Each structure stands twice: as C-alpha cells, then as structure tokens.
Amino acid sequence: MKTTIMTEGMHCNGCETRMVNALSQIEDIKGAKADAKSGKVVIKHTHEATVDEAKRLIADIGFEVKA
User: Fold this and answer.
1) Where are the domains of the chain?
2) How far apart are CA 26 and CA 39, in angstroms?
3) CA gyration radius for the chain?
4) In the prediction, which pLDDT does 61 show?
5) Is residue 40 classed as helix, strand or coil in its secondary structure?
6) Contact partners, residue 60, CB within 8 Å, separation at least 6
7) Which residues form the HMA domain (predicted)?
8) Which of 41, 44, 38 is nearest to 59 (CA)?
9) Which of 4, 18, 21, 30 is at 20 to 30 A from 64, Cα to Cα?
10) What is the per-residue pLDDT for 29?
11) Cα separation of 22 and 48, whole Å?
12) Average pLDDT by consecutive 10-residue portion of the chain (67 residues)?
C-alpha cells in the first residue's frame, strides 16, 4: 500500500531527511519520501495500522500531522 500523509513544519532538506530516517525505523514501512515544499510524506507499507503509527511518530519528532 501507499499512503500520503500531509504535514506541517518541514522547511528544508534536513527536515525531509529527519522525517524519512525516523519513519524507516518502523518495521512495516518499506519506503518513505518526504517533500518539505508540499508538506507531503508518502509511505509504502503492508498494514493499514502502520499509518496511525507513522502519524504518531511524525508528531513525536516535532511535525504537525494535517491529514
């Protein structure tokens, strides 16, 4: 599955890297891409419950989840 999560708070490539590195620690996430300009984070995963886990992690590392 592929899911797009809208966020706020990413401002640069460093933020994108921080986001991707954090998400890659979740076992079910097979790939992640973050775009600071649009605020989009796209994750590839196999279980729907992973989306909620990813959203919690995004908030935990200091970014706001919009959708």
Assistant:
1) 2-65
2) 20
3) 10
4) 97
5) strand
6) none
7) 1-66
8) 41
9) 30
10) 97
11) 18
12) 97 97 96 97 96 97 93
DSSP symbol at 59: H
Judge whether 53 and 9 are in contact, CB under 8 Å. Answer: no
Unique residue bearing structure tokens 């966020």: 7
- In the numeric block, which tokens belong to residue 48? 């729907």
Helix axes 13-23, 49-60, angle to 10 degrees: 130
| Rounded CA separation 14/52 (Å) | 24
Helix (H, G, I), strand (E, B) or coil at 51: helix
Positive/negative CA dihedral, 50, 44, 56, 18: positive
Residue 53 CA, chain-centre distance (Å), reads 10
- Sorted by sequence, the CB contacts under 8 Å of residue 2 that are 6+ apart come out as 42, 43, 44, 45
CATH code for the structural domain at 2-65: 3.30.70.100
